[in-house]
Amino acid sequence: MALVGKKYPHINTGAVIDGEEIVENFSLDQYLGKKYVILFFYPKDFTFVCPTELHAFQEKLREFEKRGAVVVGCSTDTEETHLAWLNTPKEQGGIQGITYPIIADTSKTVSLNCGVLGGEYVFNNETRTWSFVGNPVAFRGTFLIDKEGIVRHESINDLPLGRNIDEYLRLLDAQLHVEKFGEVCPANWEEGEAAMEATNAGVANYFSQN
């Protein structure tokens, strides 16, 4: 079920922050009323596409911060595995140099509640036991959350498909524009371009200028 327009699911779990410190009770609640959040999920530490994405988010981190946003990563690996990967040099496939928080969703509840887990728990009535069916890792889900904790965008890529990080900057710019001016953003809109009023007159005026 889509989360767009709804409050993000509660998160209270372990994470690594500042690339070196393990914390036990990391929550997005600390950003409420203060920051926009780009929350992204990735499948596994020590893999192939994943480090390219984590480094790409780091390279654009200042751009997100300039817009009043924080970036938070998440996978189903442990805090200790995150830390080991953070201590591995980039040229060896590691993510050394990443400074934004990385959540350790070892219980898989964060991924499950956000709808990005690549499988599900199934109860067997005969054995009275639960088992996991599918791939117990997160797809490449990405969520734009506003300052009030409302999800304004979500997208989910299959495991082999890496993200375009610039698209999330564009979406953040659009959200900021909507909030500031009350206009809506048409197809392929980018910061500095004309938006439109959500009226027939506004649409007509937009197309007359483009």
From TrEMBL:
Residue ranges annotated for the Thioredoxin domain, each copy included: 2-177
Primary role: Thiol-specific peroxidase that catalyzes the reduction of hydrogen peroxide and organic hydroperoxides to water and alcohols, respectively. Plays a role in cell protection against oxidative stress by detoxifying peroxides.
Stored PROSITE patterns: THIOREDOXIN_2
Active site: C50
Protein name: Thioredoxin peroxidase
Keywords, comma-separated and alphabetical: Cytoplasm, Disulfide bond, Oxidoreductase, Peroxidase, Redox-active center
Entries under SUPFAM superfamilies matching the protein: Thioredoxin-like
Domain of life: Bacteria
Presence of keyword Disulfide bond: yes
GO biological process: cell redox homeostasis; cellular response to stress; hydrogen peroxide catabolic process; response to oxidative stress
CDD domains linked: PRX_Typ2cys
Location in or out of the cell: Cytoplasm
Stored InterPro entries: AhpC/TSA (IPR000866), Peroxiredoxin (IPR050217), Peroxiredoxin_AhpC-typ (IPR024706), Peroxiredoxin_C (IPR019479), Thioredoxin-like_sf (IPR036249), Thioredoxin_domain (IPR013766)
GO cellular component labels: cytosol
Family membership noted in the UniProt record: Belongs to the peroxiredoxin family. AhpC/Prx1 subfamily.
Chief location category: cytoplasm
GO molecular function, one term: thioredoxin peroxidase activity
Pfam annotation, one family: 1-cysPrx_C
